[in-house]
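Supplementary notes (optional reading)

For those who missed the lab, this is the record we used. Protein: Type II secretion system protein H. Length: 175 residues.
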Amino acid sequence: MRRNADGFTLVELVATVAVLAILLSLATPAFGRIAEHSRKTSALHRLTSSLALARISAVRLGIPITACPSHDGRSCRGDSDWSEGWIVYADPQRTSSPLDDSKVLEASDGLGSGIAVLGTVGRQRLRFSPHGWSAGYNQTVRLCSSDGRLLARLIVNNAGRTRTETPPEGTPCSV
């Protein structure tokens, strides 16, 4: 009496692995786009909530509150690159950085690799007045992919309100 062995032959195993490899190679770009979309959405939510905190705090406390890009969570950068993080701080003297650490209301870390967050050139900070306004001109923060595509825009108007825009696919992330 002979028993049939249960299992796979080498040919069946190689064919199965080949089919899996083909399916994974087709699915990998889609997973990359899903991850990029998740990072973009997270960045927009984090930045929008920080700017809302700045505006609400300015109205509630009755003093100017500033949001600016920061690389260390304690001082403002001298440019408009928000990729390494940002801070929100009480700014009654209208200074270019917080006078001390106790003035910082929120410090947000950077987003990591994959997305650059770039503000309007020449506007390094957003200062909200006690009325919630952000005087000057609109601030546009661009979220850019590592390959130079524009993923989204966050626009803060002079009244201090934010809105987001999603550009058409393939739009370059130029100034």
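If you only remember one thing from this example: The first strand starts at residue 65 and ends at 69.
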